[in-house]
């Protein structure tokens, strides 16, 4: 239950991204600056946290061992996740972006066969066992996704086809990139690095990408305005630091269970609810229709089912966990 709670809290802080990104776009800010400034402002906070805990040198040593892998998966997990999200905000309301983002619930589950673990086979030999798609968790995720579809059904009919295309396709790309980069860097870190080190490593590895994106923003609108800079700082703290740490810690806690990972990733469906509330309060968005409220109820119901069934067989989950090393965060927190 604790990983689920952390996932819900991360969804709340992630929702700030969708609301403020939309607000910055409506005020004339460039999506490129919204994307790059978040990570440029996040970097000093993460450096201070990791260095203050005396774990900066181990991180740099680990990145030096496999710089190409860190560059690739850091760019995928952060670059190809957040740049498309900000691009979509230029063409669609925050609620649509947040709603479409929930496809990551299914995307994360579909990535399971691309990962695996070494387990003891017959005769004592180790066998590499690929992950399996958690069908029960995937079915529950589809329930949540159906609720999201109802939540935005009325609004989608009011949009131009171009808005729908440019507001959805980039988010679909992001929905696969985020869990893929997250899980691949888990493999890179193993037991050696905790969650703060892993996030800082991904941020450092994605810096070349963000510098290129910032050049796009400079060519598009010049230097960012004061309000956009301030809002980017808020997004960096809320989403780039707090939400990301909470989410990565939650996934680290259940890293040995594909069903547990699917359940934690499903908590991100609440982002659409938090984003909707934020747009109503900050951007004066209209209240949801009856159909949207039905969708909200389905999402909450799906979340409850996901939480219950993810811990339905604790003995089996404990057996799975015993074959795996402890999460990097847990190992680091005991030192």
From TrEMBL:
It comes from the Bacteria. The chain crosses the membrane at residues 31-50, 70-92, 98-121, 133-151, 163-180, 200-218, 230-248, 260-284, 290-309. Keywords: Membrane, Transmembrane, Transmembrane helix. The keyword Transmembrane helix applies. Residues 315-335 are annotated as: Disordered. Pfam families: EmrE (PF13536). This is Putative multidrug resistance efflux transporter. It comes from Paenibacillus typhae.
